[in-house]
Amino acid sequence: MHDQKTLFENWADSYEKFVFENQQSFPFKGYLELVDAIINTIESQSNIFDLGIGTGYISYKLYTEKKCQIYGVDLSEKMVEISKNRIKDAHIIQFDFDNYQDLDWSVFPKDINYFIGTYFFHHYNDENKIKIIDFLLTHINPNAKIIIGDIGFLNHDLLIENKIRLAKEWDDSEYYFELESLKKSLKSKNLNFESKVISEFCIYLEIWK
Ligand SMILES: C[S@@+](CC[C@H](N)C(=O)[O-])C[C@H]1O[C@@H](n2cnc3c(N)ncnc32)[C@H](O)[C@@H]1O
């Protein structure tokens, strides 16, 4: 089985509590500010596709506070069960997004306004991050915006500094964002973006065509 699947199946019931109890430490410092940034950016009544929706905390807020329609996928069956129970009108399916090109996109509306990925994209290296972003904005909806909130740093030096400082918590199997180098890749694909640093470990990005 996919290692990540086992991890999140076992973590699903306690995941959200863990995030909120660790608001002052790596890697979740800034998560609540990130949630606010996303809720404030997204226009009411939008169609949202949540990549790695998890327990559905953010999407539920978008559903109740912004009257958004929610679609999403997650690798973990347990996460899908929790998010589906929480957001009654949502269409959420269990799917390994590594196979994003094989997803039956026809079951989702063509006019997805925002693809959101919070603490999701660090499962992909930079090359695959860009491939996914490019695929969504080329093949699924060129008018959509992608909103990313994730573990990341302004540049390589800061990433290395933190990797040394946080050696015990650091997960070498994950690919944390380096904003400066990612921005170069986005520019080379002629993609527009805005970014900001939310906390010492958390970055926010909006990307569009
Ligand atoms: C760190 S959690 C974040 C959940 C949620 N986005 C949030 O902000 O609370 C990452 C989520 O991505 C899901 N995930 C990891 N790899 C995935 C994959 N290959 N395809 C789909 N979902 C995946 C996990 O099951 C988990 O629910």
Model description:
Helix 1 (3-21) packs across helix 4 (77-86). Strand 7 and strand 8 form a beta hairpin. The radius of gyration is 16 Å and the shape is globular. It has one domain (3-11, 44-95, 107-208): Rossmann fold (3-Layer(aba) Sandwich). Strands 1, 2, 3, 4, 5, 6, 7 and 8 form an 8-stranded mixed beta sheet that branches. It is 40% helix and 22% strand. It is α/β, with parallel strands linked by helices.
The description of the largest β-sheet is: 8 strands, mixed
Strand content: 15-25%
Average pLDDT, to the nearest integer? 97
Low-confidence stretches: none
Helix content: 40-55%
**How does CATH name the architecture?**
3-Layer(aba) Sandwich
Instruction: Indicate the CATH topology.
Output: Rossmann fold
Q: DSSP helix count?
A: 7
User: Could you tell me which ligands this complex binds, including any ions or cofactors?
Assistant: S-adenosylmethionine
Identify the CATH homologous superfamily: Vaccinia Virus protein VP39
- Domain count, please report it: 1
Structural category: alpha/beta
Tell me which oligomeric state these chains represent: single chain
Any idea what the shape is?
A: globular
Query: Total number of β-strand segments?
Result: 8
Order of helices and strands: HHEHEHEEHEHEHEE
- Supply the CATH class: Alpha Beta
**Gyration radius from CA atoms, angstroms:** 16 Å
Distance linking N and C termini? 36 Å
